Amino acid sequence: MNITMIGTGYVGLVTGTCLAEFGHFVTCVDKIAEKIEALNSGKIPIYEPGLKDLVHKNTKEGRLKFTTNLSEAVPDSDAVFIAVGTPTSRRGDGYADLTYIYEAAREIAPHLSSYTTVIDKSTVPVGTARQVARIIRETNPDADFDIASNPEFLREGAAINDFMRPDRVVIGVDSERAEKVLRDIYKPLYLIETPIVCTTIETAELTKYAANAFLAIKISFINEIANVCEAVGADVTDLAKAIGMDKRIGPKFLHPGPGYGGSCFPKDTLALMRIVQEHGENVRLVEAAVEVNAAQKARMVKKIRETLGGSETGKTIAFLGLTFKPETDDMREAPSITIIPALMEKGAKIKAHDPQGMEEAKKYLPEGIKYVQNAYEACEGADAVVLMTEWNQYRSLDLERIKALLRQPVFIDLRNVYDPDRMLDLGFTYAGVGVLVKG
Question: How many CB atoms are closer than 10 A to CB 11?
Answer without folding.
Answer: 23
